[in-house]
Amino acid sequence: xxxxxxxxxxxxxxxxxxxxxxxxxxxxxxxxxxxxxxxxxxxxxxxxxxxxxxxxxxxxxxxxxxxxxxxxxxxxxxxxxxxxxxxxxxxxxxxxxxxxxxxxxxxxxxx
Length: 111
Fold this sequence. Notes:
Oligomer: single chain
Strand order of the largest sheet: 1-2-3
Helix content: 25-40%
Largest sheet: 3 strands, mixed
Low-confidence stretches: none
Number of strands: 3
């Protein structure tokens, strides 16, 4: 998956094309499988930090920020749900930490 430096440069489309043309599978909410291993990945968006969680309240800019976080979370959830492999891995550029991760239903997958 791409990260903040790819987006900061404004060249995320070109970076993705170069990687894809070279045979690299760039993850952005689509599941990818190899045998019994399933991988879902997203860049994430500045979320998942235990005591710093923003709420969708107040100014439109704040609501748009939180909506972008939620949209990324939903992309990952959809990709994980589509995986029917025995082993599943979730990859995020911005990774969750603290209580949200410990309580996540995706933290470990049943066999």
